[in-house]
Amino acid sequence: MDSQGGPYLNKKALFSPLGAARLCQLAMGCAVIAMVTHSAGYSGSQGVFCMAAWCCCFAMSVVVFFLDATRLYSCLPVSWDNLTVTCAAFATLMYVTASVVYPLFFVRIECPYAGCDVRNFRIAVTVCSILGVLAYGAEVAWCRARPGQAVVGYMATVSGLLKVVQGFVACIIFGALANGSEYSRYAATIYCVVVYAFCFALTAVVVMMTVCGRTKAVRCMPFDRFVVVCTLLEVLLYLSASVVWPVFCFDTKYGSPWRPSSCPRGKCPWDSKVAVAVFSFVNFGLYVADLIYSQRLRFVSSHLSTNSRV
């Protein structure tokens, strides 16, 4: 007991829906890692990515659960609510990706040379990974700001969650660019890479400012207006990149609109260019949705404040 007569441990970290979701995250993460290292196995860049995603999310969940249960998060110079919902959203995306990639590359209907036990373990890994997606998604849904409720933190809003998704999609774009996309052939495609990097950095700055509780660091304007201005700039930049990249990669003057027959699977520059183009449009749509929601939130806020003065 402390000097105030309260318990040392946070009971809500265990006996609450949020605590139950985090315990499920730990259980599924531990089960996945144990089965993969025991018998399911992994290989290649796809397997390394899946294993790294599961280990990273498990370690993150252990730290979050421990700090929440012991109340030590109060010693950290961060906004705890913003940090936890950001971690949960990021882990959800990582688990979703791993839950698709692992069975796609490692699960087969027929038994492999190592026997049916390996196949069964890989199926079990996939099932536990999907359950992990549900556990992390449940935490995001539980912490998400709802209409009519007080907003605990910006990252709990739809706009804040979209920031996490935008950063994740940008990482996919960077991975495709690094996989032999030949982006350095033209100045226009180099411009697109600069756009992707700048928008990712700007999104990361907004997220870091929110998580660190530095939303008052912008002196020339309110933080919500700063976010809207950044999002509008990102929309315009992604719009230009989403037009320029396909033109300089698939137009017959600069590239090929069709996949070369001699291109090896998994190491084809044309495939990487297609991935960059597709996810550029995806991120452009996410930024547009973010801008619309942010402006709507701003309008509602201003409308309410006007009514309160009346």
Plain-language structure description:
- With 310 residues, the protein is mainly α.
- The protein folds into two domains: 9-148, no CATH class; 157-258 and 266-300, no CATH class.
- 71% of the residues lie in helices and 0% in strands.
- It contains eight helices and no strands.
- It has helices at 17-40, 44-70, 80-106, 116-143, 158-178, 187-211, 223-250, 269-309.
- Helix 3 (80-106) packs across helix 5, helix 5 (158-178) packs antiparallel against helix 6 (187-211) and helix 7 runs antiparallel to helix 8 (269-309).
- The model is unreliable at 1-5 and 299-310 (pLDDT under 50).
Give a short summary of the structure.
This protein is mostly helical and 310 residues long. The chain is 71% helix and 0% strand. Helix 1 (17-40) runs antiparallel to helix 2 (44-70), helix 1 runs antiparallel to helix 4 and helix 5 (158-178) runs antiparallel to helix 6 (187-211).
Write a concise keyword list for the protein shown above.
single chain, 310 residues, mainly alpha, 2 domains, disordered N terminus, MYADM-like, Myeloid-associated differentiation marker-like protein 2
Structural class: mainly alpha
Count of distinct structural domains: 2
Taking the sheet with the most strands, its summary is: none
Q: Which spans of ≥5 residues are poorly predicted at pLDDT below 50? A: 1-5, 299-310
What percent of residues adopt helix (DSSP H or I)?
Answer: over 70%
Overall mean pLDDT: 85
Q: How many β-strand runs?
A: 0
Main location: membrane
Protein name: Myeloid-associated differentiation marker-like protein 2
Family: Belongs to the MAL family.
InterPro entries: Marvel (IPR008253), MYADM-like (IPR047123)
